[in-house]
Design brief:
By secondary structure, the protein is α+β, with helices and mostly antiparallel strands. It has 3 domains: 94 residues, Glutaredoxin (3-Layer(aba) Sandwich), CATH 3.40.30; 119 residues, Glutathione S-transferase Yfyf (Class Pi), Chain A, domain 2; 34 residues. 53% of the residues lie in helices and 9% in strands. A 4-stranded mixed sheet has the order 2-1-3-4, covered by helices on one side. The termini are far apart. InterPro entries: Glutathione-S-Trfase_C-like, Glutathione-S-Trfase_C_sf, Glutathione_S-Trfase, Glutathione_S-Trfase_N, GST_C, Thioredoxin-like_sf.
């Protein structure tokens, strides 16, 4: 729910950004969206790295929006002083703790379902996210095509998709529906969906994984999720992929800023 709200959301139209905008939409929590133009490396600018929300209040520590220089990040203005949270999984768990008291997309803290949910969110953040992200890089952006690297990360992404497909099949067979945990749609599904929804950009097909494909299509039809993937901008990747020209233009645009960011980091960390 972009607009006047208690949450300041700093984000971009990426899988990690979509993870949080979709969570906020599903919870119905209004937020003030600030687009971070990663094509211009805005996430590395000092104002983003170090935001002092209480500059006139002695003794209040400076808020760093994201110490890692990455999106997404939020500032919750209902806290006194305002509370900064960065990293996708931390933000999702925080939002559920603060704004999902009736557990619409989460579970009571300490329950078996809660910890199972955390396991699958952590699995995504340490598995699908980084592996598919590297597949994106070597398949779409790297200045030289290293086939070993492309194969390595695409195959690992497919292996992880098979793990998720098998989990969904097991849940379905047990009468839990086509959801990752607890027989309902939760932040574990949002977390995994945010990356699987970008599968084709990594050169990976979802159709060989029937339960995953059905799960993906079901989530795509949720109104809140559709709104969430269009924050802060319209989600253009799937439209671009409909033509070779569109695909190439989309890749060229993103490759330029990815490589520019790499060159700047290399200069700083020789």
């Amino acid at each position: 729910m972009a607009g006047q709200g208690t949450i300041d959301l700093y984000t971009a139209g990426t899988p990690n950004g979509h993870k949080i905008s979709c969570t906020l939409e599903e919870l119905g929590v209004p937020c003030n969206v600030q687009k971070i133009d990663i094509a211009k490396n805005v996430q590395k600018e000092e104002w983003f790295l170090k935001i002092n929300r209480m500059i006139d209040t002695p003794g209040v520590p400076t808020l760093r929006c994201s110490a890692n220089g990455r999106i997404p990040a939020i500032i919750d203005n209902t806290s006194s002083p305002p509370r900064r949270v960065f990293e996708g999984q931390a933000i999702q768990l925080y939002l559920c703790e603060q704004y999902d008291k009736d557990h619409r997309i989460s579970f009571p803290y300490g329950s078996d379902d809660y910890w199972e949910m955390v396991c699958w969110m952590t699995w995504m953040q340490s598995g699908i996210g980084p592996m598919q992200g590297q597949a994106n890089h070597f398949y779409r952006y790297a200045p030289e095509k290293i086939q070993y690297a492309i194969n390595r990360y695409q195959v690992e992404t497919k292996r992880l998709y098979q793990v998720l497909n098998d989990r969904l099949a097991t849940q379905k067979a047990a009468g839990q529906g086509l959801w990752i945990v607890g027989g309902k749609f939760t932040v574990a599904d949002i977390s995994c969906f945010s990356w699987v929804n970008w599968a084709e950009w990594a050169g990976v097909e979802t159709k060989p994984f029937p339960e995953l494909q059905s799960w993906l299509e079901t989530i795509q039809q949720r109104p809140a999720m559709e709104r969430g993937v269009n924050v802060p901008d319209a989600f253009e990747m799937k439209k671009a992929m409909k033509s070779k020209e569109g695909e190439e233009q989309f890749a060229k645009h993103h490759s330029n800023w990815v490589m520019q960011g790499m060159r700047e980091d290399e200069a700083k960390h020789k």
